[in-house]
Amino acid sequence: MKKPTILIVEDDELDIISVERSLKKLESEYVLYSAYNGIEALRILRDPNLGLFPDVVLLDINMPRMNGIEFLKVIREDKKLKDLKVFIMTTSSEYEDRLESEKLGISGYIIKPLNYTENTKRSDSMDAFVQFHLRKILLDENI
After folding, report:
1. Integer Cα distance of 40 and 42 in angstroms
2. Block means of pLDDT (10 residues each) for the chain, length 143 residues?
3. CA pair distance 90, 109, nearest whole angstrom
4. Which of 17, 20, 60, 80 could potentially form a cystine with 10 if both were Cys, beta carbons 3.0 to 4.6 Å apart?
5. C-alpha span between 143 and 138 (Å, rounded)
6. Residue 29's CB: how many other CB atoms inside 10 A?
């Protein structure tokens, strides 16, 4: 059975750590690639030696050099990458960002902060995403 692959495109190291922590709860093997901006992510995706077509891309919107919206525009025009499942991770409540990313065919949103440090019963959004969405996407497709 092929190990599921995930590409996280995020410039905040703490958010990457939060994602990694949540993914460990999958109790399944997976391969995680990371890029710090859209340009680096495209380099990874187009590297013929890697031959990477991830099962899921977790994408931040606000990044330097090439932001998430710019990255989405590029991959949706690329015939090899246009069908990638992309989930946006964002603090942005900007209506324009949501509208633009939805037009570019995202699979869903994960709202930051990825962890809540307040005393509340509300589970963090990344844990919920991993348990309810990512588990189904990765494990069902790789059976």
Report:
1. 5
2. 87 86 79 94 94 92 90 96 90 73 84 51 59 67 53
3. 7
4. 60
5. 9
6. 10
CA separation for the pair 3, 76 (Å, rounded)? 25
Element (H, E) at 116: none
pLDDT at 28 (0 to 100)? 76
Both tokens of 47, joined, read 């590297």
Six token digits for residue 83: 């069908």
Cα 121–122–126 angle (5° rounding)?
Answer: 135
53 token code pair: 């077509």
Would you tell me the crossing angle of helices 38-45 and 68-77 to the nearest 10 degrees? 30
Torsion of CA 18, 34, 111, 17, to 10 degrees: 10
Q: How far is CA 90 from CA 53, 84, 103, 112, in A?
A: 23, 18, 16, 5
Task: Tell me the two tokens of residue 40.
Answer: 């680096």
Spatial distance between the Cα atoms of 44 and 48, rounded to a whole number of angstroms:
9
The type of residue at 143 is I
Residue 90 near residue 112 (C-beta atoms within 8 A): yes
pLDDT of residue 102: 83
